[in-house]
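Entry 14: structure prediction run for LBX1 factor. Input pasted below.
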Amino acid sequence: GCGPASPLWALEELASKTFRGLEPGVLQAAQGREPLAALGQRPVCKKRRKSRTAFTAQQIQELEQRFRRQRYLSPVDRDQLAARLALSSAQVITWFQNRRAKLKRDLEELRADVASLQALPPAALRQLTALTDPPGTGPGPDPPRAPGTGTDPPPATAELSEEEIDVGD
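Run finished. Output tokens:
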């Protein structure tokens, strides 16, 4: 067993004498349960992040309307808009930055979609069009071709600019 002559008993006695008289906080810290606050070291305090702003529907509507007209605001315009919407200038700045980033992502996605469609063969494009058009509104069956005329010409490529694309939410 665990009598006075056993090594386990000796180790237990040594440990109990070592930790006897110490504050409970130090014992818990030694066991890894909490920081060593009792020894004068303060726990590491993490900075609290500001909570996410919940914009009202009216604020978002006005911000969106302004964004459609003007992607960047002057400091005077920004302060006036912030005051009118009961927001801070920092909130308006952040909203516009996030909205420009969203527009950029949307445009890149749209360009990628257009490029992937342009890479499809003409027959596949006709099949896609037939799938998306309601019955009776699509281009209909292909007109007959004269023998030896070859394949369809490649689809026209369209370059899209930010001004030409209205990306609404």
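Notes: The chain has a mean pLDDT of 77. Will compare against the previous run tomorrow.
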